[in-house]
Amino acid sequence: MMDSKLHVLQHSLGVGQYGDEPSYRNHFCAGPGSADFDNCRALVADGLMTERAGNELSGGDSIFHVTPAGINFVALHRPARTRKTKPTGDEA
Questions:
Q1: Of 11, 34, 56, 75, whose CA is between 20 and 30 Å from 43?
Q2: Ramachandran class of 60: left when φ > 0, alpha when ψ lies in -120 to 50, beta otherwise
Q3: Per residue in 14-51, pLDDT tens?
Q4: Residue (of 63, 69, 82, 91) closest to 17 by Cα position
Q5: Is-contact 12 73, C-beta < 8 A?
Q6: Is 73 exposed, middle or buried (0-12, 13-18, 19+ CB in 10 A)?
Q7: 31 is in which domain, residue-wise?
Q8: Cut 0.85: pTM above it
Q9: What CA–CA distance (Å, rounded) separates 27 from 8?
């Protein structure tokens, strides 16, 4: 569940797979029956997102926003970016 929660938070903020890109948004639209709706509701229960009623732009789906606690959660739980290195020539 942690990976799916983190994925929803990262997607909501637009911070990329490793959570280290500049955030350019803070919203996620989902409605009952969608793949991420239950995760969004769980994040609301955890205090990491808020939910408000949808509108015409969201197609009537709920609109979720990441809270400051959710932003902190992303910073603390994001995966480390792996670094690719060039061979030194000693590997033969």
A1: 56
A2: left
A3: 999 888 899 999 999 999 999 999 999 999 999 999 99
A4: 82
A5: no
A6: buried
A7: 2-77
A8: no
A9: 10
Domain assignment present for residue 31? The answer is yes
Structural domain includes residue 90: no
Q: Please give the distance of CA 41 from its chain centroid, rounded to a whole number.
A: 13
Phi, psi of 77 (to 5 degrees): -115, 5
- Based on the structure, what is the number of domains in the chain? 1
Question: How far is residue 28's CA from residue 1's CA, in Å, rounded to a whole number?
Answer: 18
Residue 25's nearest CA partner among 64, 75, 81, 51 is: 64
Residue 30: inside a domain: yes
Measured distance CA(4)–CA(21) in Å, rounded: 19
Let me know: does 8 contact 27? Beta carbons within 8 Å.
no
Residue with tokens 């205090």: 47
